[in-house]
Amino acid sequence: MGSGSDSGVAVLIAAYNAEVTIARSVASALAQPEVIEVCVIDDLSEDGTVAAALACDDGTGRLKVLRQQSNQGPGAARNRGIDESRAPFLCVLDADDYLLAGRTASLLAHRHDAELVCDDLLRVFEGAEHERPDPVWDIGAAATISFETFVDRNVPRAGSPRQELGFLKPLIRRSFLDAHGLRYSDELRLGEDFELYARALALGGRMLITPAAGYVAVMSAASLSGRHTERDLVALRDASARLRDLRRMSFGERRAVGRYTNNLDCKVAWLRLIDAVKARDFRCMAATFLKPGPVPGYLAARLAEQVVERTFLRRLKAAS
Asked: How far apart are CA 166 and CA 154, in angstroms?
C-alpha cells in the first residue's frame, strides 16, 4: 500500500526502557500490510531500547526511530510521532503490547463510520503470552460511544476489574485532529489517552467500538498497581475539569465529568492523608477530611479497608 493511499496507517510507539518488549511491538506493527509508517519515539531510555527497535527494520523503509532530547512523558512522545508521520490514520501501540494479524484492516473497514474506531482489547498477563487472551469488555457488536458514556465509563467501579474506556487504542483520523488542533497534553503523564479522546468527542468526534480485532494488552505487576504520584493525579483532575469549557454540555455530560474529577479528588486526598500519617501531621490529617463532596466518605472507607486488612494479616501471622 503506497504512501498516497487514503487508508494508510501510521503506528506510533512511545517507548521508555522497553528493550525487552519493543521488538515484539514493532514486528507486529510492520506485519500489518496497511501500515505505511511505524514511528518509535524513545523517551530517553536508559537501556537498549533504541538499538532493539532499529534491529527490527525490515528493509521496507517504513520504520522510523526518533529519540527525545529529554524525558517528557508519553503524550509529548506521541505528539512528536504525529508531527513526524504523514499517514491519514494514526494508531497508538504501547511498547509492551502487540498486534495480531488483521487488526488494522478490521478497524479500517469502519473508517467512514467514525473519527475514532476502537476495538475491544485482548488482555494477557506478562509471562503467559502463549495463553489465549481474554477480551476486556466482551463487546458483542459494534456500538457508538457518546461523550457522556465515555467519561462515565472511566470512573472505576469498586469491587469490579478495571475496564475504563480510556485504555482503548483507537484508529484516529488525522484530518480530524488537525482540523481541531488536537494533540496529546504534554503536561500529563497519566490519563493522556483518556483526556485526548474526551476532548475529541466533546468537539464532535464520533467513537465506534467493535469486538476484539487483535490489540493485545500485556498486563504486568506495574500496570496493575494503579500507583500514581499526587502531581500526576492533580494534573489529570485539572485537565479533566477543563473539558466542561470546550462547549455547552448537557446535565448528564457535566455530571459525568464531575463524577470523574471527584474520583480523582478522592485519590489525591488519600495520598495526602498517607503522607500526613507518615509525618504524624495531625492538622493535615484532619484537613483531608474537610473537603466537601465524596472525599470524607471515600477516606473513611479506605481507612476501614486498611484496618480490616491489617487485622486479617496479624491473625494470619499469629496462626502460622
From this structure: 6
